[in-house]
Design brief:
This protein has 344 residues and is α+β, with helices and mostly antiparallel strands. The chain has 8 helices and 12 strands. A 5-stranded mixed sheet has the order 3-2-1-5-8. Bound molecules: dinuclear copper ion (CUA). Dinuclear copper ion binds next to loops.
Length: 344
């Protein structure tokens, strides 16, 4: 018995183990899984799922044919007499040519839809007569920046898009290589410094789609998530109008104190809040951080408690975070949280 794998002497246990393993594996394929790529919700993911299915069914056919021949051969040519040595053959030109040519044909067949899918998924020129929303995506350790150049909006970690509208993405990176991936809307797009990779997504239905970085990019790679919010054109327009407005000045006393701490402390070196002197570009734009549903690369729900935990000690929440632990006293953290949460 090795690492808990039952010995062949206990077939009941072995069957149970295999059934349990199969149940675990199958449980990973729930159609309601928010990241299930086989239940696409947009044309790009649909193209990719179709390609995957084509290759999958070809692989099943190859498996059945090869295993069928193998099993037939093992039974048909088994040793019938103890000690009998079957006729020995070496080399068969027809067989060798056949099993060289067939894989070549299969690969050539797969190459055609693979290449056309790659071209279709990465062409960022929308078909004539259709509108596209342009978004510049920049990967940072460990968060995503979304810049809508035509709308004058810059935000982080929460990409809002109108349902049914094509969104052309221009994906790059500010530091190391990341990979932009919204499993239900489209495949990975490498985010590479000093390079722009084009891609597009379109969500058929309204909803919030989970997304993540797919390229190992440092200690908090697994904490580099994001959400894509697909909403009606009216809701999207409302969101845009709110994002374009400068956040209102805080009125509550603790929020005003927080605004002062923010403006005079280290925060402004890295963060921008439109309408204030804070214009740092290292970290996320916080102009409307209070309206976000998540924090810190979409790993925390946006609650005052979580924001306080984050500001207290960012590297404790996200190892490798560029935002340092500023050792702020509790009252300053509380005031900053009141201010930032007021930035709707
Ligand atoms: Cu960025 Cu992994």
């Amino acid at each position: 018995m090795v690492f808990g794998v039952p010995s062949p002497k206990s077939p009941g246990l072995a069957t149970g183990f295999l059934l349990g393993l199969a149940a675990l594996l199958i449980a990973g394929c729930s159609p309601t899984d928010p990241a299930n790529i086989l239940v696409p919700t947009g044309p790009v993911d649909r193209m990719e799922a179709d390609l995957f299915n084509l290759i999958y069914y070809i692989a099943i056919a190859v498996f059945i044919v090869v295993e069928g021949i193998l099993i037939y051969t093992v039974i048909r040519y088994r040793s019938r007499q103890p000690g009998e040595i079957p006729a020995q053959t070496h080399g068969n030109t027809l067989l060798e040519v056949t099993w060289t040519i067939i894989p070549c044909i299969i690969l050539a067949v797969i190459a055609v839809p693979t290449l056309t899918t790659i071209v279709s998924a990465t062409t960022t020129t929308p078909p004539a007569g259709t509108n596209a929303l342009n978004v510049k995506v920049v990967g940072h350790q460990f968060w995503w920046e979304f810049d809508y150049p035509d709308l004058g909006i810059v935000t982080a970690d929460e990409l809002h898009i109108p349902t049914g509208t094509r969104v052309d993405l221009d994906v790059g990176s500010a530091d190391v290589i990341h990979s932009f991936w919204v499993p239900k809307l489209g495949g990975h797009v490498q985010a590479i410094p000093n390079q722009k990779n084009g891609s597009w997504i379109l969500a058929d239905t309204a909803g919030t789609y989970k997304a993540e970085c797919f390229q190992l990019c440092g200690a908090s790679h697994a904490n580099m998530r994001m959400i894509v919010v697909s909403e009606s054109q009216a809701d999207f327009d409302k969101w845009v109008a709110n994002m374009k407005a400068t956040a209102a000045n805080p009125t509550a006393a603790d929020a005003q104190k927080g605004a002062q701490i923010f403006a005079t402390g280290a925060c402004t070196g890295c963060h921008t809040i439109d309408g204030t002197k804070a214009a740092g570009k290292v970290g996320p734009n916080l102009t409307h951080i209070g309206s976000h549903t998540t924090l810190a690369g979409a790993v925390l729900e946006n609650t005052p408690q979580n924001m306080a935990m984050w500001i207290h000690n960012p590297p404790a929440v996200k190892p490798g975070s560029i935002m340092p632990n500023l050792n702020l006293p509790d009252d300053q953290v509380t005031a900053l949280v009141a201010y930032l949460e007021s930035l709707k």
